[in-house]
């Protein structure tokens, strides 16, 4: 098949998932055309079946806001016409679904029918998309898609609750390549981070308010007072300066490191003992799944789709949003007992296997085949 994939090229979960999907489909022999404004971060190296088409948004003195959506729709039309693309798969509704609708209409005038699959990822529905500034366009363009998928049951339900849907929504979960994430730790790296064998806790996100990164710090400060431990932060975003200040002023500041944006997550996960994700909401929690694939148990909230992935008292623990004491108690429970830690690590890996790339990608292929 010849598939066009539209996504955000950044470190966000939707872009990561879309890129990994494209790579997996290309490995299976499909031709994949990425249409984005920048090379996606997880797309590197050469692949015979992968093509990258950059959306250029020319500036003009009149434009305070260059019309990205118009440039995107025009690029979609151009790529489809010149590469025999048979289906467009857009990730994150805003503005990709409405741009796809526009492209579809332009092509229909030329007698070309292009099916559009829209995958909802989370904040496009639960935060931004619900805002009345965007809601009418998001509702319309979702309903005009030929198929809609959501990354968890919770996100599907949230979409039905918040939008006037005229179409069914298929749940296709996020996935992970377990083989890639289940790595041996690099001893030298571990030694640098925890020279005396301290337990390593990890948080990775885009440091937005919805992630409640301050709760990570609160949990760690309590844990650190009870046991020798280190905290690693991966990622960057608007809350980071505030979080860095909070860390500096805490009693645990010597045991906290900010690694910034990282591409080799698997190497960092391989040396980690526990992953913290205290989000206010997660449609799925791809970062938690990647941790579990590296046999790292997860301490998370029970918000959104997280209970569909992280199983309480099995692959980790779930707490109410903001219940820092409970998260601390659960962290200590896992980390202070080597037998328990080993058991949780094994469980986390087993749980991740249910979402392995080889189980989930065929679901997308089957969906495409209903249109092509
Ligand atoms: O995690 C983020 O904030 C980025 C965001 C995105 O849209 O890029 O991620 C969302 O999509 C991921 C992939 O489907 C999900 O695993 C994340 O849970 C979801 N984030 C939220 O719902 C906050």
Please provide a brief summary of the model.
44% of the residues lie in helices and 16% in strands.
Folded structure, characterized:
This protein is α/β, with parallel strands linked by helices. The protein has 2 domains: 2-174 and 356-369, 3-Layer(aba) Sandwich (Rossmann fold); 178-353, 3-Layer(aba) Sandwich (Rossmann fold). Helix content is 44%, strand content 16%. The chain contains 16 helices and 13 strands. It has helices spanning 13-27, 68-83, 93-109, 123-126, 135-144, 153-162, 178-181, 187-193, 213-226, 240-248, 265-270, 286-293, 306-309, 324-335, 338-353, 357-369; strands at 2-6, 31-36, 50-54, 87-91, 116-120, 147-150, 170-171, 199-204, 229-234, 256-260, 274-277, 298-301, 316-319. The strands form 2 sheets. The chain has a 7-stranded parallel sheet with strand order 3-2-1-4-5-6-7, sandwiched between helices. The protein is elongated and about 70 Å long. It binds ligand GMT. The site of ligand GMT has 20 residues, from helix 1.
């Amino acid at each position: 098949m010849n598939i066009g994939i539209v996504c955000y090229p950044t470190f966000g979960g939707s872009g990561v998932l879309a890129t990994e999907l494209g790579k997996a489909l290309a490995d299976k022999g499909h031709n994949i055309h990425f249409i984005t404004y920048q090379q996606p971060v997880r797309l590197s190296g050469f692949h015979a079946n992968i093509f990258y088409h950059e959306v250029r948004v020319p500036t003009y003195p009149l434009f305070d806001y260059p019309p990205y959506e118009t440039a995107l729709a025009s690029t979609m039309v151009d790529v489809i016409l010149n590469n025999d693309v048979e289906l467009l798969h857009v990730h994150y509704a805003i503005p990709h679904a409405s741009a796809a609708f526009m492209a579809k209409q332009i092509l229909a005038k030329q007698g070309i029918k292009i099916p559009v699959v829209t995958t909802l990822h989370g904040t496009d529905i639960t935060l931004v998309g619900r805002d009345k500034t965007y809601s009418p366009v998001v509702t319309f363009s979702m309903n005009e898609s030929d198929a809609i998928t959501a990354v968890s049951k919770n996100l599907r339900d949230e979409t039905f609750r918040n939008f006037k849907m005229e179409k069914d929504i298929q749940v296709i979960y996020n996935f992970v390549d377990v083989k890639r994430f289940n790595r041996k730790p690099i001893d030298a790296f571990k030694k640098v981070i925890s020279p005396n064998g301290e337990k390593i806790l990890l948080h990775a996100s885009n440091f937005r308010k919805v992630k409640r990164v301050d709760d990570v710090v609160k949990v760690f400060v309590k844990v650190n007072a009870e046991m020798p431990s280190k905290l690693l932060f991966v990622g960057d975003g608007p809350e980071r300066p505030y979080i860095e200040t909070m860390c500096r002023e805490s009693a645990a500041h010597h045991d906290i490191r900010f690694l910034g944006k990282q591409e080799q997550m698997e190497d960092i996960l391989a040396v980690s003992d526990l992953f913290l994700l205290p989000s206010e909401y997660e449609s799925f929690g791809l970062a938690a799944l990647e941790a579990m694939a590296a046999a790292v148990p997860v301490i998370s909230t029970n918000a959104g789709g997280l209970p569909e992935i992280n199983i309480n008292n099995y692959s980790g623990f779930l707490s109410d949003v903001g219940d820092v004491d409970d998260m601390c108690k659960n962290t200590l429970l896992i980390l202070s007992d080597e037998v328990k830690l080993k058991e949780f690590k094994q469980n986390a890996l087993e749980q991740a296997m249910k979402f392995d790339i080889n189980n989930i990608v065929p679901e997308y292929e089957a969906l495409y085949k209903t249109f092509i």
